[in-house]
Amino acid sequence: MENNFDVVIIGGGPAGLNAALVLGRSRKNVIVIDDVQPRNRVTKETHGFLTRDGVSLDEFRRIAIEQISSYPSVKFSEETVETITGTDGQFTIKTSNGTVYQSKKIVFTVGKKDKPLDIEGLAAVYGKSAFVCTYCDAWELRNQPLVIIVKNAKSILGAKMLSGWSNQLTVCTDGPNEWTDEQREDLKQHNIDAFDSPIDRIESIEGMVQQIILKDGTTIPCKGIFFAPKLVSGSNLPRELGCEINDAGSVVVDTFGKTNVPGIYSAGDVASELYQAVTAASMGALAAMSINSELQLEAWENLSEFNLNKNREQPLSQTT
Ligand SMILES: Cc1cc2nc3c(=O)[nH]c(=O)nc-3n(C[C@H](O)[C@H](O)[C@H](O)COP(=O)(O)OP(=O)(O)OC[C@H]3O[C@@H](n4cnc5c(N)ncnc54)[C@H](O)[C@@H]3O)c2cc1C
Fold first, then answer.
1. Cβ(35) to ligand 1 under 6 A?
2. Are 173 and 194 in contact (CB under 8 A)?
3. Using CA positions, which residue lies closest to atom 47 of ligand 1?
4. What are the backbone angles phi and psi of residue 169, rounded to the nearest 5°?
5. Cα of 115 from ligand 1 centre, angstroms
6. Is the minimum distance from the CB of 33 to ligand 1 under 6 angstroms?
7. Is the shortest distance between the CB of 281 and ligand 1 below 6 Å?
8. pLDDT tens, position by position, 140-187
């Protein structure tokens, strides 16, 4: 049957695509269903992925699909998975296009999504001059005046880390916070000002931040912003199917992407809090290896049982 697969991979970011590559090379029938809304689509470039440092998201995806397409058992479809029913070995997947797929195993590589950003002007600069990950984007803003927006006292670590890229740092807590006097003194000793007033707005020109205006009237000129967004799972489907979810909203998996639900695997941002393309890809590869082993051993067992039954059914005259 055309829509019958060994594995349906839901989500075609680095995690899902690397899972598809490994499963394609393992000769498994796979489809990657992706509605192409990755979290980093706001950015122009992806950094820190060996051999792909600085490429655009479109180029990353184009090369990945071109390479995976060498393995004829892998298919791609651009649509949204809406419902999944069934159990290990016989899942039924329905999509927004009304297509129905059958699959033995499922991999959720659905990523995470930002909750709406509630600072005026932040959406205009997000991905252009406001970022969430220093390892991804701080190099491009090195030695520039930067603002880090952190509410949580533990986030002082973020300011300490960012000081490795620039010594012109300002901290904004955007209102009430948990900072102690010791922490403020610590920042002061490193020439970092900390402001408590809520942020009124971020002013920018063509996505490039110019200044942050606080409600008390303070103006902070800067060239870049780092902040920690609130994240939610890219899809509710893992939860609906009974996958265990941790306090950070991530699907709980073992090292090889196995969830607590038989036949369901997960990898990438949705199953971790590491938030790096290369880590997501590596999780996808590990999950694929584990799924392939499971499928292979199941096929081996089924064949043994089939041969045993066949021999039992054959009349004595034919077996001697
Ligand atoms: C602003 C920004 C900049 C970043 N820059 C970098 C960087 O430079 N370097 C780096 O290593 N990392 C960077 N990251 C992090 C990186 O984007 C993620 O770690 C990576 O994309 C995670 O890959 P993933 O495959 O887990 O999920 P994603 O890439 O988010 O892919 C998930 C896919 O699943 C799809 N999907 C979800 N639900 C469904 C459904 N029901 N049906 C079909 N499809 C579905 C989504 O549309 C999406 O296409 C950045 C993140 C942000 C926010």
1. yes
2. yes
3. 37
4. -110, 145
5. 14
6. yes
7. no
8. 999 999 999 987 766 788 899 999 999 999 999 898 877 888 888 999
Query: For the chain, which domains are there?
Result: 4-114+230-311 (3.50.50.60), 122-227 (3.50.50.60)
Q: For residue 108, what is the enclosing H or E element?
A: strand 100-108
* pLDDT over 50 (residue 127): yes
Cα 184 → chain centroid = 34
What's the CA dihedral at 26, 32, 37, 42 to 10 degrees?
Answer: 30
How far from the centroid of its chain's Cα atoms is residue 123's Cα? 20
Choose one of 18, 34, 42 to mutate for the ligand 1 pocket test, by most ligand atoms within 8 angstroms of C-beta.
34
> pTM of the entire structure?
0.94
Counting ligand 1 atoms within 8 A of each CB, the residue from 269, 278, 282, 283 with the most, and so the one to mutate, is 269
Q: Which two tokens stand for residue 318?
A: 């034919």
Ligand 1 centroid to Cα of residue 72, in Å, is 25
Report whether 166 contacts 137 (CB < 8 A): no
| pLDDT tens digits, 222-249 | 999 999 889 999 999 999 999 999 999 9
Number of H-type helices and E-type strands within the chain: 9, 17
Please name the residue that has the structure tokens 């603002």: 147
DSSP 243-296: --B-TTSPBP--TT-B-SSTTEEE-SGGG-S---HHHHHHHHHHHHHHHHHHHH
- Secondary structure element (H or E) that encloses residue 62, with its range: helix 57-68
